[in-house]
């Protein structure tokens, strides 16, 4: 079956996490992704957090599926020529080097345009234009600068970063959308363009509701769905909301049976207004359904802490899965806190290809997260990440280099 991005060639100049997430998605949609790596070393993540000596790390293998790898020294004059040939042949160049690195290599936007006016040049940077534009940035820096950390955690503790890689993988996703949008525009404009996804912007986009709350706070001085209400103080900025779900549907994480020994024996429980009477029935507080202090969402807001304490008395008598089963019968929104172990072993995620087992020549079998976006006409088949330089000869031949030329370039250290 054909793939959505069949025929699209990507010159993948990405490393670490943000850029590789983006190009991996494009590869899963069918693009031919040619990853250019530094000869001898490659993407630094190949050797980071290794669990098997001398074998590409899971960090690398899980971010670089379905790609080809070529090694080119882009600071070597002959290596530069190979890169120029690739620029002429590809549709998109994706990079996430530190600011200015591509220019220092000699590949300014103007130079790339000269080589290939249809080329789309897509970049992840830490910050957009402004005071921090020259800074190098990693995941947690972006979470802090994008507003996530100041709004995550509990009121009486420090800012907290989240396990979800919203700075790296989140920005990679944003960039992928920018690239396919630019490819679409090129179908009628005939021109390439630059696509920039700054990590601070990507995180802030995902924290949109917190900027909403900042303005609500400034107008009213209080936000009733926050745990700071009714007893705590609100300051000038959006506070950390703990596990509150916000919106009109208050929620919290509650202990379940076994919580004393299992750090994940918890459930997320939402007191959705339309099912309030059912919640009261399930937890044995039928009187709350008609009590004016509890019957309406507005009346409940000052009592949320007590309400969740009461619900927790019930959830603590059930495992998280038993509680899920009972609550779902009544359409009460809730979700178990799943550990990574439970997720890895979940048969339904294996069935949909969201968790995939991949075989690798030096590592053997390992689990990875497959394509989370399912297209009915463009199925994803996850194939292993390439070994360093595995496809150099193949790609050089496609670029028109003879075996003798390839061998000479190798001797010169260009590839
Ligand atoms: N051949 C020769 N040189 C190469 C090369 C190749 N194939 N590929 C890269 N290089 C060179 C670059 O030209 C650059 O050289 P100069 O500094 O002399 O210009 C150098 O390698 C290193 O690039 P870098 O500065 O991007 O790498 P770093 O490890 O110092 O920084 C990072 C890493 C991630 C902080 C930085 O790349 C960055 O800020 N990127 C943008 C934001 C981003 O994506 N962050 C997320 C990272 S995932 O957590």
Topology:
Layout (H helix, E strand, L loop, with lengths): L8 E5 L4 H11 L3 E6 L20 H4 L5 E5 L5 H13 L2 E4 L5 H4 L4 H7 L4 E6 L13 H7 L23 H21 L4 E5 H8 L1 H13 L30 E5 L10 E5 L5 H8 L13 H4 L3 H12 L4 H10 L4 E3 L3 H6 L1 H5 L3 E6 L3 E6 L22 H7 L4 H9 L4
Parallel strand pairs: 1-2, 1-4, 2-3, 4-5, 5-6
Antiparallel strand pairs: 7-8, 8-9, 10-11
Bound molecules: oxidized coenzyme A.
Family: Belongs to the CoA-transferase III family. Frc subfamily.
Protein name: Formyl-CoA:oxalate CoA-transferase
Keywords: Transferase
Structure, explained:
It catalyses: formyl-CoA + oxalate = oxalyl-CoA + formate. Belongs to the CoA-transferase III family. Frc subfamily. InterPro entries: CoA-transferase_III_domain, CoA-Trfase_fam_III, CoA-Trfase_III_dom3_sf, CoA-Trfase_III_dom_1_sf, Formyl_CoA_transfer. Keywords: Transferase. Pathway: Metabolic intermediate degradation; oxalate degradation; CO(2) and formate from oxalate: step 1/2. It is a single chain. The protein has 415 residues and is of the alpha/beta class. The protein folds into two domains: 9-205 and 349-412, Crotonobetainyl-coa:carnitine coa-transferase, domain 1 (Rossmann fold), CATH 3.40.50; 251-332, 2-Layer Sandwich (formyl-coa transferase, domain 3). Helix content is 36%, strand content 13%. It contains 17 helices and eleven strands. It has helices at 18-28, 58-61, 77-89, 101-104, 109-115, 139-145, 169-189, 199-206, 208-220, 276-283, 297-300, 304-315, 320-329, 340-345, 347-351, 392-398, 403-411, and strands at 9-13, 32-37, 67-71, 92-95, 120-125, 194-198, 251-255, 266-270, 334-336, 355-360, 364-369. It has a six-stranded parallel β-sheet, sandwiched between helices. A three-stranded antiparallel β-sheet has the order 7-8-9, with helices on one face. Helix 1 (18-28) links the parallel strand 1 and strand 2 (32-37). Helix 1 (18-28) packs across helix 7 (169-189) and helix 6 (139-145) packs across helix 8 (199-206). The two termini are 34 Å apart. Bound molecules: oxidized coenzyme A.
